[in-house]
Write a structure and sequence with these properties.
Layout (H helix, E strand, L loop, with lengths): L1 E6 L2 E6 L10 H16 L5 E6 L3 E3 L23 H16 L5 E5 L2 E3 L1 H7 L3 E5 L3 E3 L13 H9 L1 H10 L2 E3 H6 L5 E3 L4 H13 L3 H14 L4 H16 L2 H12 L9
Parallel strand pairs: 2-3, 3-5, 4-6, 5-7, 6-8, 7-10
Antiparallel strand pairs: 1-2, 8-9
Ligand LHQ binds next to α2 and β6.
Pfam family, one: ECH_1
Keywords: Isomerase
GO molecular function, one term: isomerase activity
Length: 263
């Protein structure tokens, strides 16, 4: 359900249920999390790239999955879909957000519901011109999950976040980029090459500094100015002891490309 390809230091993960628009089942979500875990552990991987097989990135939770689909039989008690969140989506969103390496999403088609929020939970989001994002939850009586309520207002501000979440309308990739919700839009035919090049570029950068940059930014959103400055100072102090700082400065002074090693 997840195709894993190693391209040098980039681990490519492809959601692979194209016949169901890569709708998310418990099995697929479990495999995705395992693959991320393995990439986090594997010291040779310095960036992860996530994309979808076929014409969609992901249609979100598989609504036909018996763990989720409400029974139409009269008198059958509703299931607790919260279990799906507790056991699959919450750990997945946390894993994405705390990866020791940068994660790029290449959004190759529609990204709906939790599929959209998995993409938005990545560090850089590149989309093909034909891609789109749909906060589909409200249409089936739910709220944005898989981090949507946290991510959306931070990405596009409260007003747009509410509009997207309340209406659940399709947002084209170009409009998502104009809102600042994603990093960039490229022609569909160039998506995979562009996203891979971006992941390879990140893979050649000081990995630990990149992960700490994400952490510092996320922390700063919760902090007042002075504590944020102190947090920066503490993280910077640690990075100052790391090999990559020594190497980065040495390479600059020697006018040669750096070879970063820390992870
Ligand atoms: C699908 C799905 C799908 C199953 C297309 N499931 N089959 C978390 C935890 C617990 C509970 C619930 O939710 C969550 C988080 C969530 O993600 S909730 C949101 C779930 N996702 C949606 O509500 C989106 C539903 N899908 C759509 O709105 C459309 O299919 C989109 C806009 C994604 C694509 O539209 P089209 O390009 O027109 O394709 P289509 O609708 O014809 O779909 C193709 C096939 O895929 C079709 O099956 P069929 O047998 O007729 O070919 C769809 O039924 C199936 N499919 N999404 N989520």
């Amino acid at each position: 359900l997840i195709q894993i390809e190693q391209h040098g230091a980039v681990c490519l993960l492809r959601l692979n249920r194209p016949e169901a628009l890569n709708a998310l089942t418990a099995a697929l979500l479990g495999q995705l999390r395992q693959a991320l875990e393995a990439a986090a552990e594997d010291g040779a991987t310095r960036a992860v790239l996530i994309t979808g097989a076929g014409r969609a990135f992901s249609a979100g939770q598989d609504l036909a999955d018996p763990h989720v689909a409400p029974s139409r039989e009269p008198g059958v008690a509703p299931k607790d879909i919260g279990h799906m969140l507790d056991h699959y989506y919450v750990p997945l969103a946390l894993r994405l957000r705390s990866m020791p390496v940068p994660v790029v999403a290449a959004v190759n088609g529609v990204a709906a519901g939790a599929g959209a929020n998995i993409a938005l939970g990545c560090d850089l989001v590149v989309a093909g011109e034909g891609a789109s994002f749909i906060q589909a939850f409200s249409k089936i009586g739910l709220i944005p999950d898989c981090g949507g309520t946290w991510l959306l207002p931070r990405l596009v501000g409260r007003a747009k976040a509410l509009e997207l979440a309340l209406l659940g309308d399709k947002l084209k990739a170009a409009d998502a980029a104009a809102l600042g919700m994603i990093s960039r839009v490229v022609p569909d035919a160039e998506l995979q090459v562009t996203a891979m090049a971006l992941a390879q570029k990140l893979a050649g950068m000081p990995t630990r500094a990149l992960a700490e940059t994400r952490r510092a930014l996320d922390d700063a959103l919760k902090l007042e100015f002075e504590p944020a400055l102190k947090r920066e100072a503490a993280l910077q102090s640690q990075l100052g002891f790391a090999y990559d700082f020594l190497e980065g400065v040495a390479a600059f002074m020697d006018k040669r490309p750096p070879e970063f090693k820390d992870r």
